[in-house]
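# step 3/5: fold
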Amino acid sequence: MTREPSNPGDQPKSVGELRSNSVSEVVEVLHKESAAILAAAQRVNGSIETAIEYLFDCNGRVIVTGMGKMGCIARKAAATFCSTGTPAVFLHPGEAVHGDLGNVTENDVLIVLSNSGETREVVSLLPYMARLGIPVIALTGNPGSSLALRSQVVIDTGVECEADPIAVAPTSSTTVVLAMCDGLAIALMNRRGFTREQFAIFHPGGTLGGKLLVNVADLMHIGETIPKISLKNTTLEDAIHVISSKGLGAVFVVSGFGDVVGIVTDGDLRRIIETSARDSTGNVWEEPLSNHMCRAPKTIDVNALAAEALKLMEDHGISILPVCEAGKLVGVVHLHDLIRAGLA
């Protein structure tokens, strides 16, 4: 049997060519989905305000439902609402008509996710919601659908096309709905005045939550471990003794009232040595401490979060902070303390 010569155009692609194609395909999907989100952003209107009012006034829970891939998005949306201060739960539309509707009360608000707005399992829930008088917020790509016509609020999440080559896989549509749910959750979070501390309470097991729960007071050095010295009748040599004995690389200068008025660090001492050696100014160590301290150092309140102390250190390039209460020195926190606590 004679083998026919191969067509050069039918040669298998190299690994490098396949990888190159994969990269361009992924980039194309990202462009399509980001473009879909931007297009949805341009269509945002007063329906968002109405939706936020319903959600803010809800005395029960926010029920989020969707079928298939939209069901996956609904689960995530419910979780995001919960973590940002709004009690929420996912309701599977298929299970709902077999008993799970018992989870829904007349104090709830329903958010329905459906690109077509005609999903049978979802639409079948609407008569029950109407009987209970539950407001329905629809996120759909079809403003003329059965879902839209039977909802109190309709948010347009339509997309021009999905991101896959044959435009059938839920990709751009689910991405837009996901982003819109995030937007609702964050707008509602802001409306409630939801704080970082409250977020931490809802995330005690997470890394971020752990960081947000740690206060400066939990980590600071107190009592005899505080490197401090009185401003009155002290010299630079006195400051050196305190820096050496406390081992934190600095000493804080306090007034007779306990206010922090200055700081001297290891780095300051090195600069003083270099300057005095160059200028031959005599015995610099016997000079008043006030001549060499840096005045008005950065401070942090005893009730502040440790994460705030870290940011202050990073912003100003410092590694130690005096901790004050009503302006008085009560402790010291060092960058090493924050590192050991896992914040840096």
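# step 4/5: annotate
DSSP finds 15 helices and twelve strands in the chain.
# step 5/5: archive (pending)
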